[in-house]
């Protein structure tokens, strides 16, 4: 065991342990083109459809965590994203959106992973940390770029709005504090780091398939 493993809190180990995977996911061609304004609203709408599938699975895991003595402290109602994504899709596709959105194979694999491991507190923590803290950080940049390049306003971008979290930094600090207080043992921390790396890999694979669909 390294000195870092002995002294670093879980949130630090997750951040440091996923640095490479995080960078690779962020630099995937689809996201670079989307954020530069090179694609179109249809590409963003397709991304939102994939997010709905992922967050539905993640938030089903959150409901399971409410019954876990440790995991319940990491479940925050104000982070719930599914209703906002559904409103975005209704705006982007129209009232019949459920009949036209599609879930990509890579997204299906991501969802399957969440269903498989979401009941384990270390794995749940890894996936929730990866998604929600990303939404409160880089997700805000995505929202601004969608507004700038594609003319979207609040409607269609509610996914990135957290009305019950007026200030992101204090909330993120609280989230990391709860994460560090989960009382995970060394084996669980190693599992959490691995699972967070896997979350970024699954997310990147989803971006790759979106890139093929929107060249």
Automatic annotation (TrEMBL):
This is Biliverdin-producing heme oxygenase. Keywords: Heme, Iron, Metal-binding. Pfam families: Heme_oxygenase (PF01126). The keyword Iron applies. It comes from Isoptericola peretonis. PANTHER family: HEME OXYGENASE. InterPro entries: Haem_Oase, Haem_Oase-like, Haem_Oase-like_multi-hlx.
